[in-house]
């Protein structure tokens, strides 16, 4: 069956020393109830955190972004090949902050996904609707279009390398969380769309994480839902205590 996953997105926070200390603290906690912990760290921290994690245990490393291009004259960009060389195993693609603040649309996102997979990086693919779309009850159509435009050029085999993270934009960093029932409803819908495009096996193997103000106080209820396979956590992933509590929020 699919993995239960807690992924922490540090965004543009921490120095290398602070990030390495956070990773070291998490490494000592040995969460028992979750299958996989992923730390999505700033580019500058990747090698140091990889050394700290030492390729052992259940904690994996992710980058938060990558270039849509292979190599060459793209000053300031970081390629998939460079990321794979640091020890990163995953990369975030499609986070709403990249879509809205950096104008990343499906033509860019689909190229980023292809770059990642072609260099052996697994993808944490984020999608989700803004508040006006939710209020107009158009959220299912919105996420379906995102899947079709960004992701569904992949083969079923390639989909095995993808984790999906549903993150309603109105819940990211706002303190507002989707209710467990709202999360379950749209996660089940996303899984059904994956099944329609691919097959039941691909759909049931795909981990679908919820993101948007996940905290120790709400993680257990969210993760108890059958189609919520864990969380992508921003603010609450920046402290060992809160993130390790979230990592222990699976099961009864
Ligand atoms: C995120 O950045 O993906 C996120 C969900 O942030 P927060 O948990 O702070 O809402």
Tell me what you see in this structure.
The mean pLDDT is 96. The chain is 43% helix and 15% strand. It is globular. It has an 8-stranded parallel beta barrel, surrounded by 7 helices. The chain has a single domain (5-247), classed as Aldolase class I (TIM Barrel), CATH 3.20.20. The chain has helices spanning 16-27, 46-53, 80-86, 96-101, 106-118, 131-135, 139-151, 156-159, 180-197, 200-205, 216-223, 240-247; strands spanning 5-9, 36-41, 59-63, 90-93, 122-127, 162-166, 208-211, 230-233. With 252 residues, it is α/β, with parallel strands linked by helices. Bound molecules: phosphoenolpyruvate.
Q: In CATH, what is the homologous superfamily?
A: Aldolase class I
Q: Strand arrangement, largest sheet? A: 1-2-3-4-5-6-7-8
The mean pLDDT is: 96
Radius of gyration: 17 Å
What's the level 1 CATH class? Answer: Alpha Beta
- List segments where confidence is low: pLDDT < 50 over at least 5 consecutive residues: none
Number of helices: 12
- The percent range for strand residues is 15-25%
Count of β-strands: 8
Ligands, ions, cofactors:
phosphoenolpyruvate
Sketch the major β-sheet: 8 strands, parallel, barrel
Structural class: alpha/beta
Order of helices and strands: EHEHEHEHHEHHHEHHEHEH
Q: How many domains is the backbone divided into?
A: 1
CATH-defined topology = TIM Barrel
Distance between the termini: 18 Å
Give the second-level CATH assignment, the architecture: Alpha-Beta Barrel
Helix content: 40-55%
